[in-house]
Specification:
Blueprint (H helix, E strand, L loop, with lengths): L1 H15 L12 H9 L3 H8 L3 H8 L7 H12 L1 H7 L1
Length: 87
């Protein structure tokens, strides 16, 4: 625990000196589409006709949607209002 506290203190000191690290987070297509539509994972999964676990796997990059799901995700990215109206 003491090593963790020291790591946190070192990180704070580095950030104050402007030496902090910037991490970029890139959303998967599924996560981006869901965010644009503004639905919960449960609601978006139901709209897509898949389980929440499948959607989570897509969003976390563990698997990729195929076929109609991939097309519907592209539609959601382009026209989120359209999918929102279907929810």
């Amino acid at each position: 625990m003491q090593a963790f506290a020291q790591d946190v203190l070192t990180s704070i000191q580095q950030a104050r000196r402007g030496e902090g690290q910037v991490h970029q987070v890139t959303l998967s297509a599924a996560a981006e589409a869901r965010a644009k539509v503004g639905l919960t994972q449960s609601a978006f999964a139901q709209l897509m006709g898949v389980s929440v676990r499948t959607l989570q796997n897509w969003e976390q990059g563990r698997s990729q949607p195929s076929g109609a799901a991939k097309t519907l995700i592209k539609v959601a990215q382009q026209w989120p209002d359209l999918l929102r109206s279907m929810a």
